[in-house]
Amino acid sequence: MNSPLIANSNSMPNHKSVHGSYNMGSAAILKELLALSAEYEEFSLEAGETDFVDQVISRKHLRKLLTALQARDASTLCHSRRVAFLAKGIATNLGWEGIHLKRLEIAALLHDIGKIGVPDHIMFKPGKLTSDEIELMSHYHNIGLDVLQACRTDHEVLTILSQTRYHFSGATNGYQCIGSDVHQGARILAIADAYDSLATDQVYRAGKKHDEIMTILMEAAGTQFDGNIVCALSRWEQNEQDAFHDAIVEVNRLYQPKPFTEREAQDANLISNIFSYLFQIESLYDGFYVVNSDFQFVLFSPGLEKLTEINATEILGEAWTSHSMPLTNKEGTSLSTSECSMNRVIANGKPMTTEFMLERPGGRLINIEVQSVPMFDENGHLAGVAEIFRDLSRGLKRPQEFNDLKLAASIDALTSVANRGELETQLAIMLARVNKQPNPTPLSIMFIDADHFKNVNDTYGHSIGDQVLIEMARLFQHETYSGELVGRYGGEEFVILCPETDLEHAVKKAERLRLAINNLKIDSMNRSPLSASFGVAEVESGDSIESIFRRADKALYHAKETGRNKVCALTNQQMLSGIVPTVTDAEESTVEEMTFSHTFNACISSDIMVYKLGGFVNDNGARLTEVSTNRAVMRLGKTGLLPFWGKTDDRRPVEVEIEFGTVTKKAQSNNRASAPRVEIMIRISPLGWIKNPALFQQRANRVFRLLKDYFVAD
How far apart are CA 423 and CA 495, in angstroms? Predict the structure, then answer.
């Protein structure tokens, strides 16, 4: 179903922006930022028994921020509300509830709050941004986190927002994280944001329809977005089509901008000034922190986290000491009390700029400039201190080309999944994580080898062989779960790392993937069947990368030696004692269970036969993919963009092959003219993998009976 137009930026109500120049000095702006943290304590006392919202962020802070966003750009606020609706709906379909659902909803409402600080010439540019403008625009993300941190926003919200920009990818570099390392809320929010952005009219393009959007999201599943969450969105829309699209329209309808009170306008202007100043800080410097009058950290910017590799959650609320920052003097020795800029500013009450050395993990020292800014209340008492950091060596930073090369080095060039080196790197990380746990979570590994792959290359050519590998990799990415890593180990061999999965469940997962491969059809191979063999092993005490790989590889070898198209599991005890590994044969869930074939006779002429076939296609919304004099192939049911079946039995997607046999004459009886007699063979197979073959057989029987009725069988 095509989505109605979600929003047209040109149709949004015009509001005079409060964003602009300000006359407040740095100290005054920083003091207002500090005041947000102090206000939280007052709001908390006023709230009494808090509800979910007050547990996440003060309602007064939330109201102030959203009012300021409306004053800045009403269309961005409306976008945020639609994204919140989409994120909440996806999460609900994934089983989220309670406080966690509310945190995600608020994170979605505030995910673009930092845009308040973006200058007009970038924010409202009538066209695509330049690379420099894009770089400047990117700072708004950190600006939002700065303010939300000062507002004492719930940690889970900050985590979701800080990780939303990460790609869901097996490749790991400074800008991407493996799926399991990214909060599921961030993965949900990224997809909800992308959906609404694609659906909304932009200056440089028209908004896209639902089906177009889902195609784009599915193409990026496993590399940029979490495929399982994209599928959850698709299931939600398929199961509640009218309600889904009507609700989005209702979100737009309910948006009724109202005039601001004088107090709201003042608050919005103050918030705008704070954001504007932070935009300059984030654009020109590398990070900053703020301590209050009790010298407790109330803000530790994302930029400073990256620079120092200190996690904000570990330091917020803690008391500042001369050892809080890994700073040294020019000689590389620890700072004395008198050398600390913080202590010097407290002593003389004046701002100052100092150069230090910052010790990076591993012991490397970089040259740092620190601006220390004291803040005083109306009585002249010290209210807090901010320290702003600039990396004086950042001109020596590696160019983007280096990051591109690093990314390329972790990805298999053909299939775009992780390569062998990346697999080994990530397995080492997972093993280290498991070994640190007092009660380690299970970790399993699958080795997969395409059966008779040499025959594919010899018969159809290497280009078709490459296509088979690409399709298998895509299938694995779609069918695996969040946190699992798919990689190509070499040739026609793939490896899947399965965290939090024991051997029993890994075997079941492998069997599901085996059946999915059985149902994979490559048009350029004349839809010849494919199969693969699986070796499965679970990490056990004392395992190294080499030992777990060796055990999985041996299990794979046994599966291939005993007939291929099987799943074989092997434990360390079995390997040491020479016990035959556990094998799941194809006989347990055969390919035949995934097909339906039946023949019947009909008394029908060839011209009527064509007429009947056309009627079936039109009446049932089928799509013909192949037609000849004695054969027709059609697709029936709605596949959407899911690689597996939906919940509605009568819409489950199948492919139907119809072959018409030789036309013969029925014997004359009672002086009636003989009638043509045709043998009709129906073969039905599912589109996509299914967990329960019995469901497919039921669906196939219904389709068969319907076809038989159309052809008026005797």
Answer: 8
pLDDT tens figures, 554-601: 999 999 988 899 999 999 888 888 776 666 654 444 444 567 888 888
> Has residue 182 got a pLDDT over 60?
yes
Burial (CB < 10 A; 0-12, 13-18, 19+), residue 617, is: middle
Residue 338 DSSP label: G
Residue among 570, 554, 562, 569 at smallest CA distance from 587: 562
Rg (CA), the chain: 31
Q: Is 399 exposed, middle or buried (0-12, 13-18, 19+ CB in 10 A)?
A: exposed
At 345, which amino acid appears?
A: V
Full DSSP string of 643-674: SB--S-GGG--EEEEEEE---EEPPPBTTBPP
Q: Which helix (H) or strand (E) holds 528?
A: none
Q: Which residues pair with 167 in a beta bridge?
A: 176
Those residues with Cβ within 8 angstroms of residue 430's Cβ, 6 or more apart along the chain or in another chain: 443, 497, 499
Percent of the chain topping pLDDT 70? 81
501-526 tens-digit pLDDT: 899 889 988 988 898 898 887 878 87
Q: Token digits for 558?
A: 């046994």
Give the neighbor-by-neighbor strand order of the sheet with 297-300: 297-300, 287-292, 382-391, 365-376, 352-359, 327-328
Average pLDDT value for residue range 109-118: 91
pLDDT, tens only, 30-51: 888 888 887 765 544 444 445 6
Q: Chain centroid to CA 179: how far?
A: 8
Tokens of 70: 């409306």
Whole-number Å distance between alpha carbons of 683 and 644? 20
CB 447 within 8 A of CB 507: no
Contact yes or no for 468/528 (Cβ under 8 A)? no
Q: How far apart are CA 55 and CA 645, in angstroms?
A: 39
